[in-house]
Amino acid sequence: MNRKPVSPVGRSWDEVESEIFSPEEIAASDLRVALMIEIANARAKKGISQKKLEIMSGVRQPIIARMEKGSTSPQLDTVLKVLTSLGKTLYIGDLRPQKPRKRARKPGGSKVLQSA
User: Fold this and answer.
1) N or C, fewer C-beta in 10 Å, the chain?
2) Residue 60: strand, helix, or coil
């Protein structure tokens, strides 16, 4: 039997992720994360509490909290209400090509992810 050697350290998340999810699913997840981070950062930059954003947007505070934590996948209408209240909009354009990740070796031989 021809078996692939198993590393005692295990596999990286990138290796596992690429086996479980398609490139499209990974890209969609990355976009969701970027959008939720942008919402949280815009709210913090304006000094608005989640409760205040609830009043401004009509979106309940617990939903805003779950959006910012990334523990929910909100409907587009909900995202637009929050963005509009923060003075933001949703831009639709071409995706930027992602920089490939390259692996660098730490002193000791273990691999570390780096952006190119």
Assistant:
1) N
2) coil
